[in-house]
Structure formats: C-alpha cells, structure tokens
C-alpha cells in the first residue's frame, strides 16, 4: 500500500490538473515545499526529476541543500559533487554547502580545501570567504582566518558577520584598536539583537581595559610598555585615560550616552590624525571611514544613537524615534561611501 501511495504522489507531482508540469515548475514546487518544512515531499519532487536526468543541476543542488539541513551530510556532499563537476553558475553555492557539511562532520581540513576551491571558481562570492575564515578561526589558524575574512569584506563590506568575526579574532590576539574598529562597524550594520548585545558588551569591556578602581579617588591606569611602538598605541592610551576620568568632575553632568559618544569621537579622531602614511586594511577601511564620519556632527550623532540601541536607553530610543530621517541619511551615506583599499 505504501509503495502504491508513493507512486500516486509521484504521479501528482508530474501532472497537476491533468496537465504535465515542466521541470522548472516542479523545481519551484519543491522549493515551496522546502520552505514549508515538508522536506520528504520536496525530496520526492527532486527525485522524480533526477530519475529523468540524474545530472540535473538545480535538482541536485536543492537535494544537497535539504540533506545538509537534515544533517545527512554524506548525501548532501554526493549531490554537491554533481553540481560542482558541472561548473555551472551555481557551482560556487555547492562548494559552500559541501565545505559546511565537511566542517560539521569534523573534517575542517577538507572543508577548508572545499572553500578555497570554491573561491578559486568564483572569487566574487563572499560567503565562501567567511566560511573559510570561520573554519580557520575555529582551528586557531588566525593568520589564515584574518586573510580570508578581510578578502571577504573587500568583496562585500556590508556582511555584518565578517566584521564581527574580525573583531573577535583581533580581541583574541589582544589587538584592542583593531577589534574595536571592526566591532564598531558591525554595530552600524546590526545594532539590535543578541549579537549586537554581545558585541556592545565586548566594546565596553575593551574601553575599560587597563583601568582599575578602588574608589573614585584611587584609580590605576596600566599602559603597555610598548605602546609607543604600536601604531595604535596612542589611541589605546587615550581610551584608558578617558575611562579613568569617567567619574571625575569633568563628567559630572554627562550621561552615559554622552560619555560613550565622546570617547568614541576622540578615539576616531586620534586615529584619523595619526593616519598620515600608515598602510594596511584597518587604516584604509576602518580608520578613514570613521574619521570621515566624525567630520559631520549630525551624522556622527545619528551613528552614536544607532549603535547605542543594545543599552535600551530611553532617551536615546526617543531620539531615534524622532530622528528617523537622520538615520536614513546615515544609511545612505554608508551605502554610497567609497572605501579605498
């Protein structure tokens, strides 16, 4: 009986209302079933197509996609390989799924190989760079991870996860300024949600780094002995000094938001003034961007409120509510900004 019902379902998938469906229509039906969580039925659609053409590219890709979600990784990889060998315009997507499946199987070296092959095939697909960076990062291959995530940001500077990963990576490497710059850019792209809350907490933690208090009159600031040999040393010393002065008279009448905004403005300004002939991705991408941002007071005010959302500050939320146009201008400026790197 079960076999008969499967045959009837298969017949229905090929014929609707008495009319035969094209392969494209069946693929579309399968995608809709997938979206609805009806994975078994979607698989039956694709299997009906593969019985007619076992190398059908889209059907193999959709099968790989579903099996990866069902954690049936060997099956997913099998279908990925068909798509990859076709060298079609979606083969790069199959490389991404294959690498992810290999990573989930506990085979990071194979995953890294797949991601690299995918990048070679299509160097304009940023997700492959991010996947390569994440897998490398999880293997503590920090140099390879940094190179991959930066290459990915160059392809797509609006991929929030890449900036977050770079910020975490630089935090692990104790490169405070580089971590902060990456995380500040992440918050511009994603100012709400669990990840934004996590990033904001890490930003505050790093801004307070090197400062310890016994009470408001007994504050110790620890400055790295090699700060003058570090391109970012002056800015990091300034951060510590500003944190140390947080509870002094100069800040008596300032809100936490105002202190946060002023600290960030000073940080970006010091880095921008030190820019000169310094080279490297962090100077070219982040420092130039934020230095240009603070030159427009209204734009920087909008940015400050925008990234302060994780605090759920009532005054800041009210400002955002009343200044939606300023946020739109900020987003337009972000979208049209021309990075040089």
From TrEMBL:
The record's keywords, sorted A to Z, are: Repeat, TPR repeat
* A Gene Ontology cellular-component term: cell outer membrane
What processes in GO biological process is this protein linked to? receptor-mediated virion attachment to host cell
Question: Which residues form the TPR repeats?
Answer: 92-125
Which PANTHER family does the record cross-reference, listed alphabetically?
TETRATRICOPEPTIDE REPEAT PROTEIN 6, UDP-N-ACETYLGLUCOSAMINE--PEPTIDE N-ACETYLGLUCOSAMINYLTRANSFERASE SPINDLY-RELATED
- Protein name, UniProt field: Tetratricopeptide repeat protein
What species is this protein from? Flavobacterium piscinae
Tell me the organism's taxonomic lineage. Answer: Bacteria, Pseudomonadati, Bacteroidota, Flavobacteriia, Flavobacteriales
């Amino acid at each position: 009986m079960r076999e008969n019902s499967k045959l009837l379902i298969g017949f229905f998938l090929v014929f609707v209302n008495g009319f035969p469906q094209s392969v494209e229509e069946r693929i579309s039906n399968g995608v809709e079933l997938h979206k609805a969580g009806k994975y078994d039925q979607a698989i039956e659609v694709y299997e009906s197509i593969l019985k007619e053409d076992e190398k059908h590219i889209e059907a193999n890709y959709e099968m790989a996609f579903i099996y990866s979600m069902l954690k049936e990784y060997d099956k997913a990889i099998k279908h990925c390989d068909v798509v990859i060998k076709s060298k079609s315009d979606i083969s790069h997507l199959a490389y991404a799924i294959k690498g992810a499946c290999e990573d989930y199987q506990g085979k990071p070296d194979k995953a890294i190989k797949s991601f690299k092959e995918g990048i070679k095939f299509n160097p304009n697909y940023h997700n492959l760079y991010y996947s390569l960076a994440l897998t490398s990062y999880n293997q503590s291959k920090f140099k390879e991870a940094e190179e991959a995530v930066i290459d990915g940001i160059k392809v797509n500077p609006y991929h929030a996860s890449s900036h977050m990963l770079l910020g975490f990576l630089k935090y692990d490497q104790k490169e405070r300024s580089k971590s902060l710059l990456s995380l500040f850019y992440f918050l511009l792209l994603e100012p709400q949600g669990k990840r934004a809350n996590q990033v904001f907490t890490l930003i505050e933690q790093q801004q307070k780094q090197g400062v310890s208090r016994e009470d408001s009159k007994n504050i110790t600031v620890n400055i790295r002995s090699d700060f003058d040999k570090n391109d970012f040393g002056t800015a990091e010393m300034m951060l510590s000094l500003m944190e140390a002065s947080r509870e002094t008279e100069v800040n008596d009448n300032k809100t936490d938001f105002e202190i946060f905004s002023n600290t960030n403005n000073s940080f970006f300004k010091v880095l921008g003034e030190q820019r000169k002939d310094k080279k490297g991705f962090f100077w070219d991408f982040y420092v130039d961007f934020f230095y240009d941002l603070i030159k427009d007071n209204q734009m920087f005010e909008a940015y400050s409120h925008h990234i302060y959302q994780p605090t759920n500050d009532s005054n800041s939320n009210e400002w955002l509510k009343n200044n939606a146009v300023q946020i739109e201008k900020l987003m337009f400026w972000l979208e049209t900004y021309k990075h040089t790197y």
